[in-house]
Amino acid sequence: MSLAFTTEKQLAISAVRRACSLTSSVFNKLVKNETLTKGDKSPVTVADYSAQAIIGSILQRAFPQDPIVGEEDAAELRSESGATIRDRIVSLTNEALVGDLGLGDIAEWGIGPGSEQTPGQILDAIDRGNYEGGRTGRMWTVDPIDGTKGFLRGEQYAVCLALLVDAEVQVGVLGCPNLPVDPSNPDGDKGCLFVAVRGQGAQQMKLSGADPTPLSMPPYAPSTFNFLESVEAAHSSHSTNDKISKLMGITRPPIRMDSQAKYACLARGDGGAYMRMPTGVGYREKIWDHAAGSLIVEESGGIVTDSRGQQLDFGLGRTLGENHGVIACIKDAHAKLLQAVQQAVADEASVQSKA
Ligand SMILES: Nc1ncnc2c1ncn2[C@@H]1O[C@H](COP(=O)(O)OS(=O)(=O)O)[C@@H](OP(=O)(O)O)[C@H]1O
Ligand SMILES: [Mg+2]
Ligand SMILES: [Mg+2]
Ligand SMILES: [Mg+2]
To answer: Which residues are listed for Mg(2+) binding in this entry (predicted)?
Structure first.
């Protein structure tokens, strides 16, 4: 019997790997070796668009019927003022598409020598990400660079791709070019791919696709348990996490890291929980920020819910709806953590109502 989603899994790996080689090369060319003025976002913009173009273009060839919910769209690039950046994106995307075939790559996906696309095809590939999402059928979701701030700092970021069927994530791939392959050797080799297929487990491999290793989360150990959380306090509430941490009796400080690399690190045994409590500004979490990572954690033996213990709902459109936070945790610690979360949320509400 052949396993489900074998082609989709390999295609997602190939697409994410190619997008990662693009983002790494943009970083090396534009961020590391150029003097950027503080706050200049152009390298990340070029890399975001090009990475989405690569993934959109490969999906277009392999699964032309599948819609895509992508973070970026090409509207600005189609305008007159977008001409300069558009030219850079076209050449970077083509450079990545024509790169030699690697492990598992298939030329029919529009990759390898001779696979150049026209500027029009590249803009269309980006705009394939305009799908509104929904509850039924197949759809992909892509975050070409998650953790844009981490990317610019040369720290953690992830290229994220997931396939959903009837609003359930079936395949998830995260490419983390700056993540150490061996967590116990942070200065060693960098560049990991994390891959999961529902019901088939999760694996970490090198960005080349070599050395696949199954992922499984260790059992709950209070002495080593701590939180993974956003670097940016504007993205998730550090102060709420701090309260929850005290209620849980956690003494180790949180691990702060940009992007869905947090899900990947949790899946391979770091921390114990990825905590993303809302900051209360009405922000709606996007499906591309959670689809791939949540499956990787679930398939490694973890549980992913919101702060009420409900499953994340990927069928509401481009967002997860009203923001009740995200709690991804080692299975046997989840109930205890949820209790602490609800206690902290109730305490915060009572302080606010007295103010
Ligand atoms: N206000 C607010 N609240 C919650 N989340 C937000 C908010 N603003 C942005 N974002 C999203 O956060 C994504 C970055 O992920 P992280 O927060 O995990 O990493 S980071 O530490 O902030 O870099 C980031 O993803 P990218 O845009 O792909 O980098 C955003 O989708
Ligand atoms: Mg993101
Ligand atoms: Mg992004
Ligand atoms: Mg963004």
So the answer is: 71, 143, 145-146, 289
pLDDT higher than threshold 70 for residue 162: yes
**Which token pair is 344?**
């902290």
Q: Which atom of ligand 1 is nearest to the CA of 149?
A: 23
**How far apart are alpha carbons 58 and 62 in whole angstroms?**
6
Q: ipTM greater than 0.90, yes or no?
A: yes
User: In a mutational test of the pocket of ligand 1, which residue from 148, 235, 236, 266 has the highest number of ligand atoms less than 8 Å from its CB?
Assistant: 235
Ligand 1 pocket, CB under 6 A: 71, 143, 145-150, 230-232, 234-235, 258-259, 279, 281, 283, 286, 289
pTM: 0.96
Query: Cα–Cα distance between 236 and 256 in angstroms, integer?
Result: 11
Q: Is 71 annotated as a binding residue?
A: yes
What is the distance of C-alpha 299 from the center of its chain? 16
Residue of the CA atom closest to atom 2 of ligand 1: 235
Instruction: Answer for the pair 177, 184: CB distance below 8 angstroms, yes or no.
Output: no
Q: Where are the alpha helices (DSSP H) in 129-281?
A: 148-153, 238-248, 261-267
Task: For the chain, give every domain's residue range.
Answer: 6-214, 222-354
Domain 222-354 is in which class?
A: alpha beta
User: Residue 35's pLDDT is what?
Assistant: 45
- Tell me which residue of 291, 290, 298 sits closest to 201, measured CA to CA: 298
Tens of pLDDT, residues 244-301: 999 999 999 999 999 999 999 999 999 999 999 999 889 999 999 999 999 999 999 9
Is 332 assigned to a binding site?
Answer: no
**What is the second-level CATH architecture of the domain 6-214?**
2-Layer Sandwich (3.30)
> Does 87 count as an annotated binding residue?
no
Cα dihedral angle (216, 219, 224, 225), rounded to 10 degrees? 90
